[in-house]
Amino acid sequence: MKHIVHLVSNKVWGGGEQYVYDLCQRLSQDVFPVTVVCRPYSAIYDKLRHLNATVVQMPLKGIVDIVSVWRLAKLLCQGEYVIHAHNFKDALTAAMARRLSGNSSRVKLIITRHLVKKGSNNLLYRWLYGQVDKVVFVSELARQEFMLSQPNIAYDKTCVIHNSIALPAERKCSETIILREKYNLKDSTAIIMYHGRLAEEKGIEVLIEALGIIRNADFFLIIAGTGEAEYTKRLRELALSCGIADKLDFVGFLQEVTPYIRQCDFGVLPSIARESFSLACLEYMSQGKCVIASDNGGQSEYLISEKNGILTPPGNSKSLSNKIKQLIEDKNMRNSIGGQALNDFHTSLDYNHFYKRIKELYV
Question: Are the C-beta atoms of 274 and 315 separated by less than 8 Å?
Answer without folding.
Answer: no
